[in-house]
């Protein structure tokens, strides 16, 4: 796998693979052609894609000729032959449709990109390490494949059982992590009590957090005097604690309450607590601003992504986001951030909003995921979705 976000991969990266003779392996595969005309070719393509998702993810690079010995491929790249006479926009749409309809359950993370090289254009498909594995090829079969160092192979019954157990345990660990952290916040078992009753909580969890014992050096992070990610701009102070590094956000000097927190965990996980985003606005009691809340979520996403990207050498580039809003029962929602406030005729129907977990790729940036999360937020108040994004999913108020 090329160790950089896919949208930053260049022709030089592809040429480096050839010069260094980087062989195929568990996370890298070379293909000279991309054939999906017949049913058998589509099945073979789906076997390759699903095998990566059922392992650790990786890159399939089409348009690379392999060195051969005695007529057999060695897995070592020899030349960039490129894919000829290809409409890549049309190809991408066709491949996405084949993957959606031919793999079950649906893959959470597949990205594609064409890269123009001097001797031809290659096409890279990056498959994320799925946390909903195992995935089966459902087109004309019901088989499970996994990628190994020697290529793909079918899963036997014992391997298949282990894959299902690992997937269940991973999802449970993610849920338990959020539940335990929210219990701590609701009990106000914090360094300083929060100043606000209603709280916005954002968790960003690299999948490696629950797959091993890898840690990052937070003391180094502090010694470099880098600003911790946070969803608000209030100054505060940083201190170590047993979980990692804690940033305490203070609303006023010498206060006995905290405006918010950011907890950086040794595992790489990020927790942001914002006690100021959910505030009553205008003259109508119980009305809160959707604009301000979305603004806080957007800023938190950007800061968390920047932080995780700066440490992406320590863990993989797939991240789970979990957004929660605590103590919001009875609130009505106002669309804007200035002018007359009328509120919406709907109230939230529960005290705590726990948004669905969203699997994200750091290489894609946070913007593609933000609208889906904000839509969940507005739907909790009875609206069909967020009014603060245009038809292309872009934030209207930038």
What's the SSE blueprint?
Blueprint: H1 11-19, E1 28-31, H2 39-53, E2 58-62, E3 64-69, E4 72-80, H3 88-102, E5 103-104, E6 110-117, E7 120-127, E8 136-137, E9 143-148, E10 151-154, H4 157-186, E11 199-206, H5 218-223, E12 236-241, E13 244-249, E14 260-265, E15 270-274, E16 287-289, H6 290-310, E17 318-326, E18 332-334, E19 353-354, E20 358-361, H7 367-379
Parallel strand pairs: 1-2, 16-18
Antiparallel strand pairs: 2-7, 3-4, 5-8, 6-7, 8-9, 9-10, 11-15, 11-17, 12-13, 13-14, 14-15, 17-19, 17-20
Walkthrough of the structure:
It is a single chain. It contains 7 helices and 20 strands. The chain has 398 residues and is an alpha+beta fold. Strand 6 and strand 7 form a beta hairpin.
Would you summarize the structure shown here?
This protein has helices at residues 11-19, 39-53, 88-102, 157-186, 218-223, 290-310, 367-379; strands at 28-31, 58-62, 64-69, 72-80, 103-104, 110-117, 120-127, 136-137, 143-148, 151-154, 199-206, 236-241, 244-249, 260-265, 270-274, 287-289, 318-326, 332-334, 353-354, 358-361. The protein has 398 residues and is an alpha+beta fold.
Count of DSSP H/I helices: 7
Overall geometric form = elongated
Q: Decide which structural class fits the backbone.
A: alpha+beta
Rounded to an integer in angstroms, the radius of gyration calculated over CA atoms is 24 Å
Determine the mean pLDDT: 84
Low-confidence stretches: none
Number of strands: 20
């Amino acid at each position: 796998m090329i160790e950089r976000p896919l949208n930053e991969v260049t022709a030089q990266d592809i040429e480096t693979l050839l010069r260094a003779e980087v062989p195929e392996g568990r996370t890298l595969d070379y293909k000279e052609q991309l054939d999906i005309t017949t049913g058998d070719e589509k099945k073979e393509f789906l076997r390759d894609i699903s095998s990566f998702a059922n392992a650790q993810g990786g890159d399939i690079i089409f348009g690379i000729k392999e060195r051969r010995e005695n007529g057999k491929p060695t897995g070592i790249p020899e030349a960039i032959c490129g894919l000829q006479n290809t409409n890549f926009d049309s190809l991408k749409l066709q491949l996405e449709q084949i993957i959606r309809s031919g793999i079950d359950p649906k893959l959470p993370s597949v990205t594609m990109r064409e890269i123009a090289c001097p001797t031809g254009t290659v096409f890279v498909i990056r498959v994320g390490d799925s946390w909903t594995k195992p995935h089966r090829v459902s087109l004309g079969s019901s088989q499970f494949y996994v990628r190994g160092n020697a290529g793909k192979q079918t899963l036997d019954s014992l391997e298949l059982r282990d894959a299902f157990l690992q997937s269940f345990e991973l999802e449970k660990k993610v849920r338990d992590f959020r539940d335990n952290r929210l219990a701590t916040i609701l009990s106000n078992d914090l360094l300083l009590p929060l100043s606000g009753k209603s709280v916005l909580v954002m968790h960003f969890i690299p999948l490696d957090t629950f797959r091993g014992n890898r840690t990052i050096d937070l003391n180094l992070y502090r010694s470099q005097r880098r600003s911790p990610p946070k969803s608000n701009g209030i100054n505060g102070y940083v201190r170590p604690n047993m979980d990692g590094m804690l940033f305490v956000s203070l609303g006023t000097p010498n206060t006995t309450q905290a405006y918010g927190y950011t907890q950086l965990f040794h595992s790489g996980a990020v927790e942001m607590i914002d006690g100021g985003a959910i505030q009553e606005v205008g003259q109508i009691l119980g009305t809160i601003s959707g604009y301000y809340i979305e603004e806080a979520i957007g800023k938190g996403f950007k800061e968390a992504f920047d932080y995780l990207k700066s440490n992406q050498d320590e863990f993989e580039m797939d991240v789970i986001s979990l957004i929660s809003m605590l103590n919001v029962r009875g609130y009505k929602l106002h669309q804007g951030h200035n002018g007359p406030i009328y509120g919406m005729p709907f109230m939230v129907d529960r005290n705590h909003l726990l948004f669905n977990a969203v699997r994200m790729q750091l290489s894609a940036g946070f913007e593609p995921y933000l609208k889906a999360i904000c839509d969940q937020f507005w739907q909790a108040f009875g609206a069909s979705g967020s009014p603060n994004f245009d038809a292309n999913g872009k934030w209207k108020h930038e």
